[in-house]
Write a structure and sequence with these properties.
Largest sheet: 6 strands, mixed
Structural class: alpha+beta
Number of strands: 12
CATH class of the largest domain: Alpha Beta
Keywords: Signal
Pfam families: DUF8021 (PF26061)
Protein name: DUF8021 domain-containing protein
Helix content: 10-25%
Low-confidence stretches: 1-7
InterPro entries: DUF8021
Organism: Eutypa lata (strain UCR-EL1) (Grapevine dieback disease fungus)
Distance between the termini: 9 Å
Number of domains: 2
Mean pLDDT: 91
Length: about 280
């Protein structure tokens, strides 16, 4: 298996960890963050990264599959038809996460991709200092964009009533417990498993719409594996959703994107995908 080089990401991951550890409270405007996410999606539809330039900070960094790159290269060279899009917003850390599922390009040719992008803004002027994307395509682990599209359309993630929302600390702890199951024998016990719950790994879905659906099938039983490191978070309490980008060290340092949805303190949905080879 080809091993991905992760060293170029460490400074980015450290910056994200610093934001979390220092308790920066940006209270950024949700509508403004969504507006740029809309611009980002339009730029991907047009295959024109230049459409983003006026909003980028001088120290802007683009990361694709855990490697720093020129934003005009990589996935932004392709004009894509977006079949599914969902954006969640973190007003505390001035960030968004956008999930895109694509089956064809703008010309109608097959172009299967699943893209998860965390976008981070400076608090002062909302300029974008980081776009951090995980891009999956044919040949990646359990990848099938048509299958992924089918399953994501079966789910409804409505806003959580304010009185029923979990704290960002609780949501983060749940995600961290899940992602620690590979190297921590007690982590699974700390995950607030809900029932029903459905897990989408690539295009493989554990649910069937029944009341007993579970996210537990296939969870790690070997807890002596390499960890999932360099975690970067976007947390939207209003949606009960957390996005975590990381390095799956036990899969050859594969770039990975996981997303979790909590309702009333329980994990109800999990999505995972990345650039690991199938």
């Amino acid at each position: 298996m080809m091993r991905h080089q992760a060293s170029g990401l460490l400074a980015v991951a450290a910056a994200g960890a610093l934001l979390l550890s220092t308790g920066v409270s940006a209270d950024c405007d949700r509508d403004a963050l969504v507006q740029f996410a809309d611009t980002y999606v339009a730029a991907q539809e047009n295959g024109q990264a230049a459409d983003l330039e006026e909003s980028l900070a001088e120290d802007f960094t683009y990361v694709e599959n855990n490697q720093t790159a020129e934003i005009g290269a990589g996935i932004f060279t392709k004009a894509l038809t977006i079949d599914h899009r969902r954006t969640v917003v973190d007003t505390i850390d001035c960030a968004t996460f956008t999930e895109l599922v694509v089956t064809h390009d703008a010309e109608g040719a097959e172009a299967p991709y699943v893209i998860g992008s965390q976008i981070r803004h400076n608090q002062e002027d909302l300029s974008v200092y980081l776009i951090d994307s995980i891009v999956s395509t044919t040949g990646n682990w359990l990848f099938n964009a048509t299958g992924t599209l089918y399953w994501v359309k079966q789910e409804t993630w409505d806003p959580i009533p304010e009185e029923a929302r979990d704290s960002r600390e609780y949501i983060k702890a749940a995600a961290d417990a899940y992602l620690s199951m590979w190297d921590n024998a007690t982590a699974a016990d700390a995950v607030p498993w809900g029932t029903p719950c459905a897990r989408l790994e690539g295009s493989v879905y554990t649910g069937n719409g029944g009341p007993n659906d579970s996210c537990k099938p296939g969870i790690p039983t070997n807890h002596n594996q390499a960890p999932n490191s360099a975690r970067r978070y976007v947390i939207d309490e209003s949606m009960g959703v957390i996005s975590v980008l990381c390095i799956f060290e036990h899969l050859g340092n594969a770039p990975d994107s996981h997303e979790f949805r909590l309702e009333n303190g329980m994990v109800r949905a999990s999505r995972g995908g990345g650039d690991a080879e199938d």
